[in-house]
Recover the amino acids of this structure.
């Protein structure tokens, strides 16, 4: 990850979410002013996150795409103000080349591409040139269309096929294997049952030999099970985080960093009791 190296497998890493948007499904509008966003970023670090993921475009189901200029206007002032103020690396949650390029210039060390290179393969060129880590996430359709798609006949196969394609594209464009992470994209065009299945079978993606990132935080499948609105899905999120850890997740993307840090500490300790499981080393 540029000049940094993340050690994976010893403990589960936390990616703290900061959405600088008016319309994100759970924290939309909360951190739209750069001052509030910076405050929350510093808090996310203090709460124990290992990386800060900043996004300027909501990917909630039905969300309309926004222009590059608007996305830059939201996230770049926050990145500028954070320069030199965080010890943890920053990830930019974007599918747009221009946004990622500007964020890397301001010091971001990871590109979190929820389109998994489907929108713009040049994101891989940026990773290759800068050495930034690249998250390849699987999404069915785009946020605007994903709820209208018919269910996948075999969601696990569909995700695996996408990972294989995107890893090959990234490598062809010069990204080193060590820079790549995989994310099955909970909630992105998946049915309720798909999301549960993905979490329960997460270990099947270990065969790719890359670290696995998952983002169950406050998502609607948790609301579906608990009947609770996004801000009250912390316990449900905790259950999904623990399940993901026991099925081999290396990084979890969460809003409630302080709470999930405790959850992860306990889950990791149980997981490692009796020696570290061999399957946790993503390189096999
Ligand atoms: N989920 C969201 C956004 N980005 N990135 C990765 N790698 N994995 C995810 O599961 C993921 C993601 C959606 O959550 P959130 O950012 O809270 O909402 P919104 O897209 O409405 O801003």
């Amino acid at each position: 990850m540029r000049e940094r190296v993340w050690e994976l497998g010893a403990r589960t890493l936390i990616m703290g979410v900061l959405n600088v948007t008016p319309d994100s499904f759970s924290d939309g509008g909360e951190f739209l002013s750069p001052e509030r966003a910076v405050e929350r970023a510093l808090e996310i670090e203090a709460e124990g996150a290992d990386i800060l993921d900043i996004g300027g475009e909501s990917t909630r189901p039905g969300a309309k795409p926004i222009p590059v200029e608007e996305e830059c206007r939201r996230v770049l002032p926050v990145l500028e103000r954070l320069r030199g103020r965080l010890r943890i690396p920053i990830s930019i949650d974007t599918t747009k080349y221009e946004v990622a390029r500007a964020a890397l210039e301001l010091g971001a060390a990871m590109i979190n591409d929820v389109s998994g290179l489907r929108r713009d393969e040049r994101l891989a060129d940026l990773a290759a040139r800068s050495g930034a880590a690249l998250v390849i996430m699987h999404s069915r359709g785009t946020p605007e269309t994903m709820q209208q798609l018919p269910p996948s006949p075999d969601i696990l196969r569909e995700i695996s096929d996408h990972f294989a394609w995107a890893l090959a594209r990234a490598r062809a464009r010069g990204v080193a294997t060590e820079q790549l992470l995989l994310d099955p994209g909970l909630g992105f065009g998946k049915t309720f049952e798909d999301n549960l299945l993905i979490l329960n079978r997460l270990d099947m993606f270990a065969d790719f030999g890359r670290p696995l990132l998952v983002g169950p935080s406050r998502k609607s499948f948790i609301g579906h099970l608990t009947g609770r609105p996004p801000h009250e899905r912390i316990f449900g999120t905790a259950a999904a985080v623990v399940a993901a850890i026991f099925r081999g997740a290396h990084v979890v993307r969460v809003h409630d960093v302080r709470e999930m840090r405790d959850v992860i500490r306990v889950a990791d300790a149980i997981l490692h009791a009796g020696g570290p499981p061999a399957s946790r080393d993503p390189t096999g």
Observations:
- The two ends are 20 Å apart (CA to CA).
- The pocket of 6-hydroxymethylpterin-diphosphate is lined by residues 17, 19, 21, 24-26, 55, 58-60, 93, 112, 114, 135, 137, 183, 185-186, 213, 215, 253 (CB under 6 Å).
